[in-house]
Amino acid sequence: MKTITYCIALVMWILTMVSSHAQENSIEALESAREQVINDEKDALKSEVEMINKRFDRNEITIVEAERLKEEAAEKRALNIENKLAIIDNKIALLKRNGEEESNDVDKLEIKFFSDKEIIGFEYTPEKRKYDRRTTSDFVLAVGLNNVITEGESLSDSDFKVGGSRFAEIGWAWKTRVFKETNWLRVKYGFSFQFNGLKPTDNRYFVDTGTQTELQTFDLDLDKSKLRVDNLVFPVHFEMGPSRKIEKEDYFRYSTHNKIKIGLGGYAGFRLATRQKLKFNENGEDVKQKFKGNYNVNNFVYGLSAYLGWRDAALYIKYDLNTLFKDNPVEQRNVSLGLRFDMD
């Protein structure tokens, strides 16, 4: 595979050398190119040796390994010089024997060789920049505070620690421009894994009684009590905001960099898992307990979400319309507030 890669790189180098400047078809230019090849490879070898010496100075490699790497680098550069000079010498011989007209015909054959999308027996399709790319994709990461809104209570009276209860979200999103001639409205859609954590107050933990899930006081002093619900959801947002049009000869793009953007939408999905973690001290020993079950948590999740962003960061809020627990007499709905990062 390394040989194939080297051959492809070598052929690409030949094509660049032949086609980038018309004057390279002359013998004088090729003679100059011989010297340039030698100097370039010597400079490259010098840089590699310096890097090897630095690795040795940092005790990353032994003296034996350093000498071996230097020998391999020198051998590689020597072969590079030999192969490249052989190609140039053959080119000079061809010019001397047949003149520049024949050489130009060879150049055309070389270019046709590439345009046929095949290099050394392997299919090769040069990637062409798309003139108008209406859909792009982003890696999505969000983190922040998590809690629940309980029916008949304010968030300040929550049964869960405001600073200790957190959420995280990780996923992938595609963004498509709605209109052909303007970029003020985009549709953003994809999938995300949501991890919603709740830490009860007052030394309590969750107990599934069979008919409902309720908070009960633990017999010992809890160092940690946390319930985490993992969901897979499929968000859809309508994103609005200004953008800058970048126009080139063979393509154009819309850029929202340094622009304010607003996203309004929602999500729907299903629960993957529910886990509870307890940490406490019993008889002088630290005890950690982890429980996995459904805890009467709803299997399906759906809600509303929105973000207000600039560059790659945004203020992000999401609110579950479904209740957290299926059969509890008091309705509780998960709510999250944090920062969202869309990194394209």
Structure explained in plain terms:
Helices cover 30% and strands 42% of the residues. With 344 residues, it is α+β, with helices and mostly antiparallel strands. The chain has 2 domains: 2-123; 135-343, Lipocalin. The strands form 4 sheets. Strands 3, 4, 5, 8, 9, 12, 13, 14, 15 and 16 form a 10-stranded antiparallel beta sheet that branches. A two-stranded antiparallel ribbon has the order 1-2. Strands 6-7 form a two-stranded antiparallel ribbon. Helix 2 runs antiparallel to helix 3. The two termini are 31 Å apart.
Quick rundown:
With 344 residues, the chain is α+β, with helices and mostly antiparallel strands.
Attribute tags:
344 residues, alpha+beta, Lipocalin, ten-stranded antiparallel beta sheet, two-stranded antiparallel ribbon, 16 strands, elongated, disordered N terminus
H/E element order: HHHEEEEEEEEEEEEEEEE
Number of DSSP E strands: 16
Q: Main sheet?
A: 10 strands, antiparallel
Proportion of helical residues: 25-40%
Termini separation (Å)? 31 Å
Mean pLDDT: 83
Described by the principal axes of the CA atoms, the overall outline is elongated
Parts with pLDDT < 50 across at least 5 consecutive residues: 1-8, 17-25, 105-122
Oligomer: single chain
* Number of domain units: 2
Strand content: 35-45%
Which class of secondary structure composition applies to the elements? alpha+beta
* Name of the CATH first level of the largest domain: Mainly Beta
Rg to the nearest angstrom?
A: 32 Å
The name of the CATH architecture of the largest domain is: Beta Barrel
